[in-house]
Write a structure and sequence with these properties.
4 helices, two-stranded antiparallel ribbon, mainly alpha, single chain
């Protein structure tokens, strides 16, 4: 049996963070509004998943999501104060399932190794 490594853990947390951001958005709005370019409430998702937004691990997870092309910095928010603002990409939606849909049952990983 293969032992999990740090990247496996980051990927699981990245998936959990993205799912939580989708859930928060859908609770506030409707699932149909979760489309490419939708702002992601990542700090709140971090609270929900117990990944502290002031931790190095949180920033590693965000970096992983950016690297995979799942999220991108919202350039229209470049003058906003505080943390960067991120939006979901089409790649991110594809990883979550259909737009507005949940993670497909049995899907083990959001990202491929």
């Amino acid at each position: 049996m293969r032992q999990p490594n740090m990247m496996d853990h980051v990927t699981e947390d990245a998936q959990a963070l993205l799912q939580a951001a989708q859930e928060i958005h859908c609770e506030r709005h409707r699932a149909q509004t979760f489309t490419p370019g939708t702002h992601l409430p990542l700090q709140e998702a971090g609270q929900r998943t117990r990944i502290r937004s002031n931790s190095i691990h949180y920033h590693d997870v965000i970096e992983e999501l950016e690297y995979e092309g799942t999220i991108e910095w919202d350039t229209s928010a470049r003058y906003a104060r505080g943390d960067k603002h991120y939006v979901i990409t089409q790649c991110g939606l594809d990883g979550l399932g259909s737009p507005g849909g949940a993670i497909q049952e049995g899907q083990e990983k959001l990202f491929k190794d």
